[in-house]
Structures are given as structure tokens and as C-alpha cells.
Amino acid sequence: MFPIRDHNPSERTPFVTYALLALNVVIFLSYWPLFDDPRALNAFFDTWAMVPAEISAGTDYYTLISSMFLHGGFMHLAGNMLFLWIFGDNLEDQMGHIPFLIFYLACGVVADFGQLIADPTSPIPNVGASGAIAGVMGAYLLLFPRAKVDILIIIVIIFKIFPVPAWVMLGLWFAFQIFGGVGADLSQGGVAYWAHAGGFVIGMIFAIPLWLKRGGAGFWARTDGHPPHPEADYGSSSIPKITRRK
Predict the structure, then answer these.
(1) Is the dihedral angle over the CA atoms 195, 127, 86, 213 positive or is it negative?
(2) Could you give the count of Cα atoms lying within 13 Å of 80 in the half-sphere of its Cβ?
């Protein structure tokens, strides 16, 4: 189950979201050849990824920023960029370009501290934009809890798209991070669940002033938790069938 789009069109061009998407892709392509040389790749990540033990020792603070523009593989990059593409434009629309960029970077830094607190002496490099994007998702949930999000369900050979309220999709995602973090062996690396959870929570907190400026609970009452403008209508949500040739 993963989201493919929302029904919440932005009302102005999300230049910062586009720039972040492009920057993440360009940076990934710049070191992609290193994946054929594990030693060189490890040295690259040791320099630019966030290593909790180094931050705890008071060094390499720059990696709190640089790490959020690195990814451990193509699917890691593609998944993060999909979530940023779906949810980023609406936050930028509400916040404005520069405030959204500051919000994004701040969420990424605080998300790193979520993983740092969970395992402060870990020598394992942490990379990815997912902490910052989790912040975007948390803010989106606060502002548009009932916006429609289309999710693709894959069960063996069955493919189906279902529209669900944002609170269902984002709430389940957050729950998975908590359960994953509780059950994770931090010494083995893997998914940085606590960075995701921390980014999500801080994103929601950072968005409270904007929510209050829009009217707080009154904003929800006026919009019923939906976007404050007409939702997009994509028509049929079924995956088209492919005709077999005889």
C-alpha cells in the first residue's frame, strides 16, 4: 500500500518543492557510480551522512543538513520523492516558498535528532530526506486531515486504487514507524524509524501557528477537514486492464 496522488491541487507553482526534487535527484546521480565501489561509497557516506556517534562527540554538525540530500539506493530515492511530490506542493502553497524551505530543513534536522536520541553512540551513517518529508506529512495531516489521497493496493496480482482520507493513510504510516521503531535492532542499521516519527511530530508542531492563523478548529469547521478549494477529480480510480493478444 502506498500513495500515488492526492486530490488537493496547489493554487500556485511549488518552485521550492520542484527544486528539492531536482536537487535530490542530481545529487544522487552525482555519486551513483560509487555504488560499484563499496569502499568509496562508505568513505563518501562517512563524510556526508549523519553519524550519531560523531554528532554526540560534537563534530560534523554539517551532516545534519547534508545527510537529508543523500539516499542509499534508487528505490529509497524514488519513495521519498514520491511522498514529497504528493504532499510538498500543498504545504508550500499554504506557507509560502521561503517559509516552506525553512520548515523543510528544520524538520529534517530535528528528525535526525530523533534517531540520535534513540541511539546516540551508533556508528551507522544515516541518510535520506524522509525525516524532512515526514515533517511535511505531519503538517499536511494537521491542515487537511480529510483531503482525499489515492493509495495503490497490491495483493499478489490484484492492483486497485482506493481514495482514503489523509488521516487514514498518514495515521497508518505514523503507526508503522512507531511499531517499527519499538521492534527495531538499532545496532543492525536499516530504516531510521525514530527519525521518521520525530520528523512527523515536529512537522505537526511547527505547523500549529499556521493552523491557528487559518482559524484553528474554525478552519476545520469551515472546510470539514478538506482543502479550502475544490478537490481534483480523477474520474475512475481503477487500474486499466491490458488486453491480451491472441
Answers:
(1) positive
(2) 30
Cα separation, 153 vs 157, in Å, equals 10
Instruction: Give kind and range of the element (H or E) at residue 206.
Output: helix 193-206
- At position 113, the amino acid (one-letter code) is F
* Nearest partner of 65 among 97, 34, 23, 95, judged by Cα: 23
CA-CA distance, 230 to 227, in Å (whole number)? 7
Question: Consecutive 10-residue runs of the chain (246 residues): their mean pLDDT?
Answer: 86 95 97 95 95 93 96 94 95 96 96 88 92 96 93 76 86 86 64 86 95 90 82 61 41
226 secondary structure, DSSP code: S
Instruction: Say what the pTM is.
Output: 0.87
> In angstroms, rounded to a whole number, what is the distance separating the alpha carbons of residues 16 and 244?
43
Is there a contact between 137 and 200 (Cβ–Cβ < 8 Å)? yes
149 phi and psi angles, rounded to 5 deg = -125, 125
- Helix, strand, or coil here: 58? coil
